[in-house]
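User: Predict the complex with glutamine.
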Amino acid sequence: MKYIFVTGGVVSSLGKGLAAAALGTLLEHRGLKVVLQKFDPYLNVDPGTMNPFQHGEVYVLNDGAETDLDLGHYERFTNCVLTRSNNSTSGQIYETVLAKERRGDYLGKTVQVIPHVTDEIKSRIYKLEKEQPADVLITEIGGTTGDIEGLPFLEAIRQFTHEVGAENVLFMHVTLVPFLKAAGELKTKPTQQSIAKLREIGIQPQVLICRCEHPLEEDVRQKLSLFCNVPLNAVIEARDVDNTIYEMPLVLQKEKLDETVCKILNLKTPQPDTTDWQRFVKRIVSPKKRVKIAVVGKYIDLQDAYKSIYESITHAAASHDCGIDLERVDAQEIESEGAEKFLKHSAGVVVPGGFGDRGVEGKIAAARFAREQGVPYLGLCLGMQVATIEFARHVCGFEGANSTEFDLETPHPVICLLEEQREVTNKGASMRLGTWPTVIRDGTLARQVYGTNEIFERHRHRYEFNMCYHDQFISNGFVIGGTSPDGTLVELIELRNHPWFLACQFHPEFKSKPNQPHPMFRGFIGASLAHLS
Ligand code: GLN
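Assistant: Here is the predicted structure with glutamine placed in the model:
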């Protein structure tokens, strides 16, 4: 096995995860089997308890792990299917070390960051190697070089190199080369200092990925090469991509990143044929038609809060050779100004998942607008719950209907806590999580969209459709398109008298890929295009 460690320097948010994933794409196109892993130096056990303002989206894996959104990039850019072993945080590592200490596993020794924490970090790399054998393991170290909390990880990967042999390891540093307007030039000093920090620990990167807004001219490349001790061909320009993040593998391929990496690691592989990827990117960049889609949420200003949803829309749109004009609508603005103002020009409405009551009434109003106006509606998790509440209030006539998440006293708790959730008090990893089967009923929109009766989708929720209301809903034109195999949990809902209204309790956005768009998103974009014409 060959190991690539990806670190980041100068500033955060440089797109390390994207760079790691894009390298994964290229290596896969060279016929290699690739696995990706991320270490996050923060002390939360997982990002599941973090606010989207802090962390963006929580990405859910098949096994129910709540992980960093970079794992979403990994799954979308490569063929790997990840598990909780692919994302470790300092919180998890300390949790394990402390549990061992309490059990007495350390036999009376003083427990220390070195060697006990670093050993635990290394053991997670070895464990992954056993669980998911591959040709290349790409491990991303979260945070920025120089952070105190990142040090144990850097020390661990330094030791690791020693153990597996330097010829099998490559360090790739993603850095910022800023343009100073006043000087009219790109500046290399921050990168030099960031590399110096790594060298202090005993790590010498062999590849530099330079994020920049302007081209890296030859003299800048030479400077970086000389002062950072990296061969000239390993100074890689990663200029901001104009159109789509999916251009990143192609940008890096042009810079021969994959070739350089394979040379350093002595991997003999053919040149990659990225025609499929180029075709996909072309459909995003210059589509034949365009469609306006509204996403109604409460973290609408945050780039990362609905990441997988935006990506899924992109994949689905590309498959229709269609561009997306995304309207990010703040649910709270709908509350004060009405849905029509924001949604009247949209060909389709998406209501994503969420927690807490802020903006919920706006989302309910959005679902009502879509139902009444015959606009295609895609509801995801909370998006299914608000559509249910809306239907209860305005079609069934259940005044004050609500979810008990938002109103404990509601006379009509049409959405209520899952049985298994009633006694749960801990917040971390305590929801209904991960992949569960759904059985789809014949003759439904869901059946048509999926083309099959049994599906497996990822979940992250505490509340569910209240089956006590089943009959009243059905007699009013509500369709339960899919349930858990035992029929107790509603997974898919739709409306009898509507062109395209589909909502699910699960999160299809975690399973969409560039060239394999998710059927629900694909169906939704198709319906939105039809709604226009
Ligand atoms: N808050 C809702 C629940 O817990 C919806 C969750 C979600 O949208 N992910 O059931």
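The pocket of glutamine is lined by residues 353-355, 381-382, 385, 405, 460-463 (CB under 6 Å).
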